[in-house]
Amino acid sequence: MGKLKLLISILILALTTVIAGVPATIGVPATPASKGVHRNAYATMMYMGTPRDYEFYVATRVMLRSLSRLGVDADLVVIASLDVPLHWVRTLEQEDGAKVVRVENLNNPYKGQSNFNLRFKLTMNKLYAWSLTDYERVVMLDADNLFLQKTDELFQCGQFCAVFINPCIFHTGLFVLQPSTIVFKDMLHQLKVGMDNADGADQGFIGAYFPDLLDQPMFHPSLNGTKLQGNYRLPLGYQMDASYYYLRLHWSVPCGPNSVITFPGAPWLKPWYWWSWPVLPLGIQWHEQRLQTLGYDAERPLVLIQTVLYLGIIVMTRVARPNLSKLCYRRENTKSIFLIQTSLKLIAIWSILAAYIIPFFLIPHTVHPLIGWGLYLLGSFALSCIAMNTFLLPMLPVLVPWLGIFGVLLVMAYPWYSDGIVRALAVFAYAFCASPVAWTALVKIMSCLNVSLEREGFLPRLSESAAPAGFNKLY
What we know:
Blueprint: H1 2-18, E1 40-46, H2 53-70, E2 75-81, H3 86-94, E3 99-103, E4 137-141, E5 145-147, E6 160-163, E7 171-177, H4 181-193, H5 202-209, E8 231-234, E9 240-241, H6 242-248, E10 260-262, H7 283-292, H8 300-319, E11 329-330, H9 335-362, H10 369-390, H11 395-398, H12 400-413, H13 420-455, E12 472-473
Parallel strand pairs: 1-2, 1-4, 2-3, 6-8, 9-10
Antiparallel strand pairs: 4-7, 5-10, 6-7, 11-12
């Protein structure tokens, strides 16, 4: 019952925030922190050059505000490349309480490797964390971290500390470092000479720079707050890979505090995208945190516009539905009519497909999942009404995919699965049972199209002005 209550409360809060216009920030708003007054810092980086720049900007703001809300005793620093828009920089400083450090993009000499992924082209900017010598310790973060509790004890760790979510390779989504001009210059030198890098990204480079971390002791914070010296491994609880959760649908991390969730993997399934939930259940926790910090003011106008547009389409298509009683002519079966009928069949099928594809790309990517899926279902229904009323198709077969999508969302969002395997089997069973229904609906649509084309239900009577031979009046 706890999961269901959480889901209902998030739905009510999301609907209130996005649709009703309630103030977007829930709880205590983030206030700018004093710049440079702390000995330690939480840092992240921003750069431009990928199609997902805005989404990562939103994710960065949510993470910064969540850290402020936890009351961390540290500065919040954003290492931003010079091409980051100035209004984003001002927002980060004035509204999110961050200290922004502008830097030039570091050249990535590994971009010619065969296994190189272009989305990692500018991730070497993470090395600038070692140049933040105003601080004793820095916790360097990726934007896809979800903090469950304050982690200031990490500032007691040594010169370099990271988590092994892979048995042999530590993860650079969160690591602790002691800034050092000497280390930073040496890293730039190693970058210039092309030190070995397994993946061409920051993780491969930093992993090669600290090759013996697996042999180092585990970090345990001291009770008196003394800073340690040397390199340490961090417990897994500081970088809980979301993949572990999806296997059992609950956390089971015995070593260290369960403090931070990270979301490595496919970039298009990051938790801030509305379609990632309920495909990946943990995404709702990220949006719960956004509701409590940043809100959804930026997406609200587009949501309202699309909602009004789709409702208008539904009304207009019902009003403009063709009058079937006016059908009175039929052509002979000529070659030209066969081509016209075939073309219209293709147009009808493509219009139905478009009804389920177009709304997906119009919804703001970072809107709340419950709002996103609701808007998608409304949009696909509205555009399906155009196909139904234009081609005189029955409603139920055209809406079978709509009902199927709604059903699979319910199956995936069901909160009482015992583990991820049972959940996957349930989705598979649903798809297996739904396939014959979808095929039957397609056959019904094609049959109805044939009937409409035979009666020319949606073809204009082009021959009224000059009717060729072969026309037969039916009534």
